[in-house]
Design a protein that fits this description.
Layout: E1 9-15, H1 19-33, E2 37-39, E3 48-53, H2 58-71, E4 82-87, H3 88-100, E5 107-109, H4 117-124, E6 129-131, E7 153-157, E8 159-160, H5 171-175, E9 179-180, H6 183-195, E10 200-204, H7 222-230, E11 237-241, H8 250-258, E12 265-267, H9 275-281, H10 287-300, E13 305-312, H11 319-332, E14 336-341, H12 360-383, E15 389-397, E16 404-409, E17 414-418, E18 427-435, E19 440-444
Parallel strand pairs: 1-2, 1-3, 3-4, 4-5, 5-6, 7-10, 10-11, 12-13, 13-14, 17-19
Antiparallel strand pairs: 8-9, 15-16, 15-18, 16-17, 18-19
Helix pairs in contact: 11-12
């Protein structure tokens, strides 16, 4: 499987879903490069098309079918184009997809097969391939994507899978049980990313707080891993996603006191403001526990930004339950949130609660009310920053104006300000002049 530089092949990877999917797509590009595959920006240019799927929510699944409908038209008589489906949807629905697209798709494989993508693609040249079993011998990919150079921010996975059984969540069925990545491999990849130009990394895991707990001796805790990552020369900021409120311990709170590199932002999914609904979701914490944790985070790192996930209309959610979500929003004043109305997913325990499903109109109405208030709070929070100065890691020019640079503060707020390309990759002080719903405007100090 050695690369053949004289006749490069082209690969196009379409990604739907979360940071985990983005990360897996990058790893597939890195591995396929060893066989001479060069990434292209349009499927029409490709010899190999892979669509990396998500199934946490319904919309990415609909996008998959639409995308396959488009790219299958590229298969002309005599064409050697190979089309594959990977990711979470391929994991839980692989056999159905394999049958549905028997004339259009050559390869279907789950997340556990990402490390084997080179061999799977080679097999798919001669036969149709379906591989979506969970691997007991899963090995994390160390290869770094060739096109990584000059990226300011990088994702680095620290674990895969999840051992929690949240009743609404499909992840355990699509990503399998929790496996922690050896710390030396994590640090090696971070060093490679920094050497390639990265100034911040985001540590990825379904429940980063439980990193290393199942691995036994030789693995640090998550908090200890943060201290090790902070020692990497040239790295300016550390982010992570996602923690579980139940498992956020005092050692991580201490890290916010000790580590200036640890960004002043945490994405802390709450899902509901009602302790009764949280019990039905099997989240294993209460409203009171969550609020106490928010207070502790703000004490450990004053000014920390907190974002969250919210589900409205979970089966059996009463008007009173929803009002508790609204009062939680007022109490915490989240800086942003990903919010959705409940939509049952296959292979999830919440399907057993279907007799208590709320009408879709009720779920949507509650979501709209939540989002309206969330947007107002975001504007208020951002406008309160006007006149302050914050350090901004410059990511690049604005999509609309090359004379305007954009970057993020430590609190993960996007800010736009006049500047030139020489600032890219630098951390510069910016005075905040205006606050909007999802961004800030500023002037270089």
């Amino acid at each position: 499987m050695s690369a053949n530089p004289s006749s490069p092949k082209k690969v196009f990877i379409k990604t739907f879903g979360c940071q985990m999917n983005d990360y897996d797509s990058g790893k597939m590009r890195a591995l396929l490069a060893k066989d001479g595959y060069e990434p292209v920006s349009e499927p029409e240019e490709a010899d190999l098309i892979l669509v990396n799927t998500c199934s946490v929510r319904e919309r990415p699944e609909l996008k998959l079918h639409s995308f396959i409908g488009e790219v299958k038209q590229l298969r002309k008589p005599g064409s050697k184009l190979t089309i594959g489906i990977s990711g979470c949807m391929a994991q839980h629905d692989g056999e159905r997809l394999f049958k549905k697209y028997r004339k259009d798709v050559d390869l279907v494989f789950g997340p556990d097969q990402v490390p084997e993508v080179r061999a799977l693609v080679a097999r798919a040249q001669d036969e149709r391939v379906l591989e979506n079993d969970f691997r007991d011998d899963y090995a994390f990919v160390q290869a770094v994507e060739p096109s990584f150079q000059n990226r300011i921010s990088a994702f680095v996975t620290i674990q895969k899978g999840c051992d929690n059984k949240c009743t609404f969540c499909i992840v355990p069925a699509t990503r399998g049980g929790e496996v922690s990545r050896p710390p030396e491999l994590i640090l090696d990849e971070i060093r490679a990313c920094v050497a390639g130009g990265a100034r911040e990394v985001t540590l990825l895991g379904q429940n980063v707080n439980s990193y290393g707990l199942k691995a036994g001796g030789g693995f640090p805790s998550f908090a200890q891993l943060l201290y090790k990552v902070a020692e990497v020369p040239g790295l300016e900021r550390i982010r992570y996603t996602s923690p579980h409120p139940r498992d956020m311990g005092p050692d991580v709170l201490q890290a916010y006191r000790d580590l200036p590199k640890l960004a002043a932002h945490v994405h802390l999914p709450v899902q509901s403001g009602s302790s009764r609904v949280l019990r039905r979701m099997k989240r294993f914490y209460s409203r009171e526990h969550y609020l106490a944790l928010v207070d502790a985070l703000r004490e450990a790192r004053p000014g920390i930004a907190i974002s969250t996930d919210i589900i409205t209309g979970f089966p059996g959610e009463t008007d009173a339950d929803f009002e508790e979500t609204m009062t939680l929003l007022e109490a915490v004043r989240f800086d942003s949130s990903f919010s959705f109305f409940y939509n049952p997913r296959p292979n999830t325990p919440s399907l057993r609660l279907s007799e208590e499903d709320l009408p879709v109109e009720v779920r949507k109405a509650r979501l709209m009310r939540y989002q309206e208030r969330q947007r107002a709070i975001q504007v208020e929070n951002n406008q309160a920053l006007v006149g302050t100065v914050d350090d901004v890691l410059v990511e690049g020019p604005s999509k609309w104006d090359p004379a305007v640079m954009c970057g993020r503060t430590s609190s993960f707020r996007m800010i736009n300000f006049p500047g030139d390309a020489s600032l890219v990759g630098r951390t510069v002080p910016v005075t905040i002049t205006r606050g909007f719903t999802n961004s800030l405007r500023g002037e270089l100090v």
